[in-house]
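Closing statement on the adenosine monophosphate sub-project.
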Amino acid sequence: MTSRTSRTSREQRIADFIAPFRVEPGQKVKLGRDFAPDFKGTIGSKKRGRKLLVQGTELLSEYQSRLYADNTHGVLVVLQALDAAGKDGTIRHVMTGVNPQGVAVHSFKVPSSEELDHDYLWRYGVRLPGRGQIGIFNRSHYEEVLVVRVHQELLDRQKLPRGTRKGVWKRRYHEINEWERMLSANGIKIVKLFLNLSHEEQRIRFLRRIDLRDHNWKFSAADVREREYWDSYQNAFSRMLSSTSTEWAPWYVIPADRKWYARIAAAAVIANTLIEIDPRYPKVGKDARAALQEIKTALEKQAPEGAAPDPFAGE
Ligand code: AMP
Ligand code: MG
């Protein structure tokens, strides 16, 4: 049993650890100037990092089971990043040890024609986690102000009414903030992670995907074409971070050049969100406990039964 004091200090350590990654509401972010992709703080070594990750995933597992039992809050983890930043690996490592019944991962691709027949938030809304659940969006509604902003021809396919394109990005930031505010007020807590990868580390990871045969499937020529839009993406990410980090759904910029560090940082941010929610196992009241005792006594009085008769005997 951990004492209340040691728990508090553990919670404090996590809060202190993630503080440098947090984008304060209203903060004007310029990636490259404000956040270093190769930051590794005071952890120092990969070995120590591995130990911390194990502790982090154990904590997540404990809290997820409470979240499930409490059945009041849901948690949505939004993961955004450029190709090869480590979204898939982060999900795999951070969620090991968590009961699969309480977690759902959704990966968003180019919208289908059915999805384009709805408003841009529709396809994300139908995949939100319910109470007691952790949902992970591998790419998310933020693509609507990222890839769609960098490649504005994608907006042409969205069938927007005439006269609504002017000021569309500012409006979308506002609409997304309000949508997230509503969700948060109704029990669905949102935590947003941007995996911040450097241009050079992306090049190294692409080369590895080409060199290692088992990794070839992860690579597509389109990824290299997207890399040519690097500056536009950094700009779109900076604006997104500046305009949509809110008290109710803050952004965290995770240094992603070291995979092991990114995983600990992501686990810590998610753990911190669960700690803040503080889900509890439902307490059984006095009357209900008395009723359980009565049932227990009755069950104990029943004679143990032998093997059930074989319904197929004699066939
Ligand atoms: P991946 O995650 O590598 O499987 O790729 C998914 C692709 O879908 C990426 O190229 C994204 O840019 C693209 N994508 C995701 N959401 C949208 C969206 N809302 N509109 C257009 N393309 C999108
Ligand atoms: Mg890809």
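The two ends are 56 Å apart (CA to CA). With this model delivered, the sub-project is considered complete and its resources will be redirected to Aim 3.
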